[in-house]
Amino acid sequence: MDDQNVIKVLIVDDHHVVREGISAILKIVEDIEVLGEAKDGQEAIEQARALLPDVVLIDISMPIMNVACN
Fold it and tell me: How many separate domains does the chain show?
């Protein structure tokens, strides 16, 4: 698959098992690349700035800067 057609994803959830499960599912899809995972909102912002994902899959209720409150 051409790198220009690959969808780069960052997974954000405070539950490790959820992040791991979503990552496992996405890793079998040929045109999706999981760039990284974050456990809270602050880590998500830092990783998004560093990794520049195309898509961020994010839990809306997490400790430390949850999306529902911001």
Answer: 1
**What CATH number is attached to the domain comprising 51?**
3.40.50.2300
CA angle at residue 59 from 58 to 61, to 5 degrees? 140
Mean pLDDT, rounded, for 18-38: 97
For residue 15, what are the domain limits?
3-69
For the whole model, what pTM was predicted?
Answer: 0.86
Residue 34 and residue 56: Cα distance in Å, rounded?
Answer: 10
With a cut of 80, say whether residue 66 has pLDDT above it: no
User: How many residues does this entry show for the chain?
Assistant: 70
DSSP notation for the chain: --GGGPEEEEEE-S-HHHHHHHHHHHHTSTTEEEEEEESSHHHHHHHHHHH--SEEEE-SS-SSS-GGG-
